[in-house]
Amino acid sequence: MQDNDHVFDYIIIGAGTAGCLLANRLSADASKRVLMIEAGRKDDYHWIHIPVGYLYCIGNPRTDWLYNTEPDAGLNGRSLRYPRGKTLGGCSSINGMIYMRGQARDYDEWAHLTGDMAWRWENSLPHFKLHEDHYKGADAMHGARGTAPSLMLDKNVPYQKVLRHRNAGGEWRVEKQRLRWDILDAFAQAATQAGIPATDDFNRGNNEGVGYFEVNQKGGWRWNTAKAFLRPACYARPNFELWNNAQVCKLVVEVQADGSKRCTGVEVWTGDERMTVHATRDSGQDRGLIGEVLLCAGSINSPQILQLSGIGPAALLQQHGIPVVQDLPGVGANLQDHLQIRSVYKIQGSTEKGGKDGWGLSLNTMANSLLGKARIGIEYALRQTGPMSMAPSQLGAFTRSSPEQPYPNIQYHVQPLSLDAFGEPLHNFNAFTASVCNLNPTSRGTVHIKSPRFEDAPAIAPNYLSTAEDRKVAADSLRVTRKIVSQSALAKYKPEEFKPGVQFQTDEDLTRLAGDIATTIFHPVGTTKMGRDDDVMAVVDSHLRVRGIRGLRVVDAGVMPLITSGNTNSPTLMIAEKAAEWIQAGL
């Protein structure tokens, strides 16, 4: 007989981007008990909520798993810091807050690779809109709270009925940024002079253009998924339970009477003891046929948990003495990420008027003075505006790395500041940074356990720039940056290339420099990819069910077969929205 205190209909592993939305949707049915397990602490750390606080959350054990990559040949032997959120809200509590869906072609290709038309753009757009609360209001491409009956607030309304109200906005707030910079306006004008069209919306299916990013903020504060989906709804529901500071050790998989395998629970380390919780009800002959475990731990931790549970490449599991429960060679393979190449340009000019918003030529000189820091702090305290409300990147652009590219394949994140590396002090001269990344890398990496201990971090090997195609795009994208900066709109600032340096011109030079100066933009995906039945590397099917294991799904960015053409947080919410629909419908 099971202890009913440890028996649930749904066990959600990970209170990150996908997990928080799933908890909200599934606990809306009062007849279902939902347990959410999070390894990190609550999101009550003040720097989580102040937008610029990502500087103090990344690399902080309070909020970050503190991962590093293996030394990477494509980066000339360098190892990178690899932040992953370890707190309620997961990566949405430490990320760049940029609201970005990607391109319609991304989802059409997912549909092709999985054989499931549910993933096509036109069939995914409603699931973006369902939880979106866009500051401009609802239209054919956006949802906004208050434009239709607020069905999401009524836990008695069936999920399918909510879905039919396509313009009924949800919980995920999208706002415009609360400051601008003259130097960024000038970069945007230069980009249009270089042939990149201006846009005021990157999220209508074709994100080609240049403009300011929209952000997941509310009134100048970070809007993470814990705020959006857990509170107040989940916390007020007696059928919802949250365990934080609790790390999953492994999944429990049992062989059923018919010979099939089913995930029936989870082993958890609470800090004091190792215990088992069950995703099944003791109901006589039906025992083991009720309940699901939903793995939402992210592209790094989800494959790690699967491998620790004996689900993964047989040779890897045997190497670490783990009994093979299900041989799935794709677990931990297919790792994709956006590698950004940071070009820094020194600038000159008058700051007498302090720019359009009074913040000077760049943030460097303002933030490097005590008076400037005091002014920045006071501005945020009084109005929640100014540099403390900044996302890590303010201006964006999507374009082609060369005329031969059939669609926009590179993305810019442009900032009115510069530094040697993330976490380092700002330079003591005025400058801006134009970071560019290959949206559709062909390089593939891995995430593999190093030991059978759940406490040990896995080996993360992105294998950046490991294909000739990726190396070519890297070199070409640096030339695109130089073309933009050479336009007349920036001439008055006398931009001088500080990094990588104008002396580097050939493909070989630029590729080598990319390896020296490039860094992750924190978008790992693909390590538990979905695919067709005949795809031996597919870990889950198109409804995110783990192959060969009943009662187990993966719901996070790891299921993406191909990385989206942009930031990955909001696509992960869309994936969770679809998963919630399928789970509640028993599909």
TL;DR?
It is built from 15 helices and 26 strands.
Task: Tell me what the structure shows.
The chain is α/β, with parallel strands linked by helices and 587 residues long. Among the domains are: 4-41 and 241-335 and 526-585, 3-Layer(bba) Sandwich (FAD/NAD(P)-binding domain); 178-212 and 339-440 and 465-517, Cholesterol Oxidase, domain 2. The chain contains 15 helices and 26 strands. The strands form 8 sheets. Strands 7, 18, 19, 20, 21, 24 and 25 form a 7-stranded antiparallel sheet that branches. A 5-stranded parallel sheet has the order 11-2-1-15-26, covered by helices on one side. Helix 6 links the parallel strand 5 and strand 6. Helix 1 packs parallel to helix 15, helix 5 crosses helix 15 (569-585) and helix 13 packs across helix 14 (507-517). Its cofactor is FAD. This is GMC family oxidoreductase.
